[in-house]
Amino acid sequence: MARYRGPKAKIARRFNEPIFGPSKALQKKSYPPGQHGRGRRKKQSEYAIQLMEKQKAKYTYGVLEKQFANLFDKASRKSGITGEILLQLLESRLDNTVFRLGIAPSRRAARQLVLHKHIVVNGSIVNIPSFSLKPGDTVAVRERSKSLETITDSLATYGVKRFPWLEWDGSEMVGKLVAMPQRDEIPENINEQLIVELYSK
């Protein structure tokens, strides 16, 4: 699956969840898209349910198929619960962390900020959205980008919500990954066990 660039509301309706953020389409049409969306749907197989969960995770974090498979392989090699480690690896991506800190209103917008070199990691510019952060790493807005309207508007609107694994200094526009998030701290509605079962086949 290439990175999705189509209608966001369509995907939100498919999963009946605001995958890309709040969606008015879900309020108006709480059924799947398509001609037969309102009709009865045949019972899904176990494989289909597992695949849907993986697709939901990929759309949520904006990760390609090969990237996702590589992250799962990395998670499966670590000691611990594979599904939780997979979510930790997804959460510690640079683009996701920029989004969680409130620097960008969405992961897609965070990806753009990283690609356009507005973000600094440990004092150096990093323009790789998939860059994996480690506990202790700092993420900051580049000095000359601090007045960027996209960033200031996002911080004013979304920068209030904080996550226990992140620290944020609003005056300096610097954040820090203090620890890997615990599963119960990650707000995404993803059943990671279904993904593990899919890859275990």
UniProtKB/TrEMBL annotation:
Function noted in UniProt: With S5 and S12 plays an important role in translational accuracy.
Annotated segments matching region Disordered: 21-45
Protein family per UniProt: Belongs to the universal ribosomal protein uS4 family.
Cellular component annotations (GO), alphabetically ordered: ribosome
Organism from which the protein derives: Fulvivirga kasyanovii
Protein name: Small ribosomal subunit protein uS4
SMART domains for the chain: Ribosomal_S4, S4
The organism's taxonomic lineage, starting at the top: Bacteria, Pseudomonadati, Bacteroidota, Cytophagia, Cytophagales
Domain RNA-binding S4, first and last residues per copy: 92-156
SUPFAM superfamilies named in the record: Alpha-L RNA-binding motif (SSF55174)
Keyword terms: Ribonucleoprotein, Ribosomal protein, RNA-binding, rRNA-binding
Domain of life: Bacteria
Complexes and interactors: Part of the 30S ribosomal subunit. Contacts protein S5. The interaction surface between S4 and S5 is involved in control of translational fidelity.
CDD domains: S4 (cd00165)
Domain Small ribosomal subunit protein uS4 N-terminal span(s) in chain numbering: 3-91
